[in-house]
Amino acid sequence: MRILVVCQHYWPEPFNSTDVCETLVQRGHEVTVLTAMPNTGMPRNDIPEEYKGRRFLEESRNGVRILRVALHPRLQGALNRIRNYISFWRNANKCARSLQDEFDVVLGYQFSPIMQVDPGIVYARKHHKKMLLYSFDLWPASLLAGGFSERSLPFRWMRSVSKRIYSQADRIAVTSPLFDEYFRDELGLKIPDSLYLPQYAEDIFSESVEPSTEGFDPSKVNVTFAGNVGQTQSVITIVEAAAKLVDEPNIVFHIVGSGSQLDACQQRARELSLGNIVFHGRKPLEDMPAYYAASDAMLVTFAKSPMGVYTLPRKVQSYLAAGKPVLAALEGETKRVIHEADCGMCCGFEDAEGLSNIVRSFALNADARELGANARAYYEAHFSKETFFKRLEQALSELAE
Hints:
The chain has two domains: 2-200 and 384-400, Glycogen Phosphorylase B (Rossmann fold, 3-Layer(aba) Sandwich); 203-382, Glycogen Phosphorylase B (Rossmann fold, 3-Layer(aba) Sandwich). Helix 2 runs parallel beside helix 3 and helix 7 (236-244) runs parallel beside helix 8 (262-271). It contains 15 helices and 14 strands. The strands form two sheets. Strands 3-4-2-1-5-6-7-8 form an eight-stranded mixed sheet, sandwiched between helices. Strands 11-10-9-12-13-14 form a six-stranded parallel sheet, sandwiched between helices. The protein is an alpha/beta fold. It has helices at 17-26, 78-98, 118-127, 141-145, 153-168, 179-186, 236-244, 262-271, 288-293, 306-310, 314-321, 333-341, 352-365, 368-382, 385-400, and strands at 2-6, 30-36, 56-61, 64-69, 105-110, 131-135, 171-174, 195-196, 221-226, 251-256, 277-279, 297-301, 326-329, 344-347. The model has no long low-confidence stretch (mean pLDDT 94).
């Protein structure tokens, strides 16, 4: 198939859209990506020098044709983030209108914000093609996780935009089966059942590696959060849990990642004089398995919001693929997976006391090897890469007919 993928985030940004597109090429398809100049996840969330000042750029990597449009860099702060979203929306829509009838099907790869897949709809409608919208983040529920109220003007506007885009997709694929509940009950959409297409972890997380020695003491119980440190992830809950275990020196918390709330989390740790939490900063993807290997268990937290209930953060798949127990402060789909896999323990959203209790219980009583084996077995049964691509190719092929 000749596939047009529309996604704001692509290499060298740290998103799995790159691996999906390159694997589709390896499986015999022609893939073109309509994306932005890289900025999210780059130093200071700015556009690298080699991309700055360009209005359009075409390049190629590992067989994938990449069409890049200009945008306002993400940088820091809400105003820059809004300008980032809207500038890509405008410029990518313009580019989509200029593309010729050269693709069989469109794949809209929908992280936040939902508008980033609208150019795929623009192209599909112009050339009478169909689009599969692959939804990772629920909109406008993501705004609630970011602190907006349902009565706010941005929320009400994005609710209208989201309903239009979800309704215009020819089919929707979702990473959690609970997404359909949100589409129907919260947005009132009358759409067919979505395709359940849970994410997979990169192959490197399944490989055996030497544990990192950076800040890890193997004689202690090391529990690690890996990923974005944003408001949605509620990493502050981990800091507060660490404070409740400060008198138990055999337990050490690790935060590997960066994000908008990292400074606040570090400041809170300083205020509490915590010596049992280590902030490692953001690390390249290829280094992450070593941090997993050095950890006795992995942490996942979420702010209390519909997003926390409905979504399954991709880090959970990488935790399971690495064969690691999972300790979580959240509810909904992630809690279901952890309990079904029998690979860890959960408490409620933003519950620092509960998280400290399950970390303590894990350190004292858990059989980490058995929980890790359960995690890996569940990953193989439900989230393998081969299963993912068979489902994706079948869905795209049906739409391309």
